[in-house]
Design goal:
Layout (H helix, E strand, L loop, with lengths): L1 E7 L7 H11 L4 E7 L6 H7 L4 E4 L4 H7 L2 E2 L2 H5 L4 E5 L2 E5 L2 H8 L8 E5 L3 H12 L3 E6 L5 H6 L3 E4 L10 E4 L14 H10 L2 E4 L7 H8 L3 E3 L2 H15 L6 H13 L1
Parallel strand pairs: 1-2, 1-3, 4-6, 7-8, 7-10, 8-9, 10-11, 11-12
Antiparallel strand pairs: 3-5, 5-6
Helix pairs in contact: 1-10, 1-11, 5-6, 5-10, 10-11
The structure holds NADP nicotinamide-adenine-dinucleotide phosphate.
NADP nicotinamide-adenine-dinucleotide phosphate (NAP) binds next to helix 6 and helix 10.
Length: about 260
């Protein structure tokens, strides 16, 4: 029996066990996936080894700590210095980030995108900005405050705070802030969003538990829109496949995981 889990704080809300256990069942894999509340990031490696895990997912606020404990880092995880998937092989920990490619799969149905503006500059903004940049999409960051934008500037991605920004035209606008998650606030001043959304084509919000005021405003401006549900699903699909050497068909994993959401 192989053991897997998701680490986070808080963790109660996580649907990752539901998604992964459903896929284990569909492929008749003898494995179990649980959720683990981790309060102290310094305990991540010790806990991972103590639980004898074959792999794990890591969610807020431990993705940077997960990056630190891995023996080897792959793909975009190195650029954004955040790991959401760890695979253990022969005692070695291999780190990946599937939030970024998960987002890319989620926006595939939008078709060709040449430019994007990302609202927010936290961990999710990093994942999305770097994968878009790597895919030759002209990407800029707009954040409420100045502190977090330096990381992007240093890595060659244009980044602005509300105070030093002049609106431009973008194909895609993405909300990666938690504005609207537990309240009815917008991720940027309304007048600014009104100007941006008038000329944009696509709107995406990483929040998946409700229709946020940002998505409502995108709809009022007749943009084609999506919430974060598919991003969440695809990051899990890609993580599952990394746990098993990419030997399963992604569409079949997605199908099994989607079924679990209907129960
Ligand atoms: N769908 C998915 O699969 C998926 C995956 C990952 C994360 N998420 C969601 O993404 C969201 C962000 O996560 P994160 O880890 O990136 O967060 P984070 O690292 O804490 O970053 C939060 C960012 O949002 C900004 N912000 C927060 N509240 C704001 C407000 N009221 N108005 C304007 N800006 C605000 C912050 O600006 P300052 O710098 O000015 O403080 C910061 O740039 C969460 O809701 C999480 O659940 C979804």
């Amino acid at each position: 029996m192989k053991n897997f889990c998701v680490f986070g704080n808080p963790i109660e809300h996580s649907i990752s066990p539901k998604l992964h256990n459903s896929a284990f069942k569909a492929f008749r894999i003898e494995a179990n996936y649980t959720k683990v509340l981790l309060e102290n990031a310094d305990e991540l490696k010790k806990t991972f080894l103590k639980l004898n895990l074959s792999g794990a997912n890591i969610t807020v606020p431990h993705k940077e700590a997960a990056f630190e404990i891995c023996d080897e880092i792959f793909d975009i995880a190195g650029k954004i210095e955040a790991v959401n998937t760890i695979v253990q092989k022969n005692g070695k920990l291999f780190g990946f980030n599937t939030d970024a490619p998960g987002f890319l799969k989620a926006i595939k149905e939008f078709g060709k995108i040449k430019s994007a503006l990302i609202l927010g500059a936290g961990g999710t903004a990093k994942a999305i900005a770097f994968i878009l940049h790597e895919n030759n999409i002209n990407t800029e960051i707009l954040n409420r405050s100045k502190e977090r934008i330096e990381f992007f500037k240093k890595k060659g991605i244009a980044a602005f705070s509300w105070n030093d920004y002049e609106p431009k035209q973008y194909d895609l606008i993405v909300n990666t802030t938690s504005a609207g998650l537990k309240d009815e606030s917008l991720p940027a001043p309304k007048e600014l969003l009104d100007r941006l959304l008038k000329t944009a084509k696509f709107g995406f919000d990483v929040i998946y538990t409700k229709e946020t005021p940002f998505l409502q405003l995108c709809k009022e401006n007749l943009l084609t829109c999506k919430d974060g549900a598919d991003m969440l699903l695809y990051q899990a699909v890609l993580a599952f496949n990394l746990f098993f050497d990419n030997k399963y068909d992604e569409e079949k994993i997605a199908e099994a995981m989607k079924k679990s959401l209907l129960n």
